[in-house]
Amino acid sequence: MNEEQKKRRSAGNYVELGEGKYRLRYKGKSKNIEATSPRDLNKQLSAFVAEVDKGQFIQSTYTFKEFAEKWLKEFSEINHAPKNTFNHRKLLENRIYKAIGHLKLEKVTPLILTHFYNSLRQEGARNDSREGKLSERTIQLHHKTISCIFKTATMWEVFNKSNPCRGVVFPEQRKQPAKFYDDTQIRTMFKALESEDIEYRVAITLAIKSGVRIGELSGFQWKDFNFDKNTITVNKASQYIPGQGTFEKDPKTQNSYRTIAMPEDTMKLLEEYKKHQQSSGFLCADNNPVFVGYDGKPKFTYWLSAWFPAFLKRHGLPHLNFHGTRHSSASYLLNSGMNINAVADRLGDTPATILNTYAHALRNSDREAAAMFNNLQAK
Hints:
This protein is mainly alpha-helical. The chain has 3 domains: about 50 residues, no CATH class; about 100 residues, DNA polymerase, domain 1 (Orthogonal Bundle), CATH 1.10.150.130; about 180 residues, Intergrase catalytic core (hpI Integrase, Chain A, Orthogonal Bundle). The longest helix has 20 residues.
């Protein structure tokens, strides 16, 4: 032990709590530790004194739940979309608080988190009426919420240990390819739509030919359609949260603000739908929503989520959730030769996301490229 370490050790003191547990004290600060030997105790005491002298020691009085509630109100509600904050709170209140809410922040360790995540992999962990285990994706959503809370605690200087989430290892998950319809299935679906009510024909046609998300589709107002230029503009989205109802929000990302060129037949179908709405007594002024209920108010954001798979089943088409219309739109464009940047702009995504999500379509294009070179050699 050098002179500096001896000086630091003599400056601090400790109280034995029993069974290898101690409380270190120095300049009004304290820290509970576990030491395996006198040498280990002296080493930790010296390090503690050094942290205090350098202003690096932060003594948190928060339990995980106390800080998480502060984080929800002063960070998540300000920086995250309302639906994201709602989902964070749901995960916290349903499972996370029961496991670690009572612990002080510094007492949450990688091992404790690993035990918690393993418990979520057991039968009965769903804590709802559905059978089966939680998916790995859902478990990782718990992990991301906890990790974000610890990152904020560090940023706000109420926690100075390493983020315990960094010490947790998840089993490698194979990414599931996006489900989509090919050209033939899309044509068959459009044929089946001819026997459906016009609002469903309009909604699905818009979804396929523009690639918009369901919230963007539900948030359309009549002013977003330019019938002279045959374009639609995405500048908002509809969102629903239990207890808050349906409301308007900004699009998902900055890239999501966009104007999309549409084929003439789709714009004519929209004009036909507008006339139908007006003849039914609905106002179709600029600020009026395009898709409305019987009372003229915007439809529930996810009004197509249950109808669409049921429609496909009625017509003998393969199962596809509504988001599959977006995947089908992107896959069709990529297979038709549109470059990645253009597809990303149209969908309001980044080229990186397109590359990661639609690798299947790019592989198809790659096979076409090989055939093109084969033709070149034949000539």
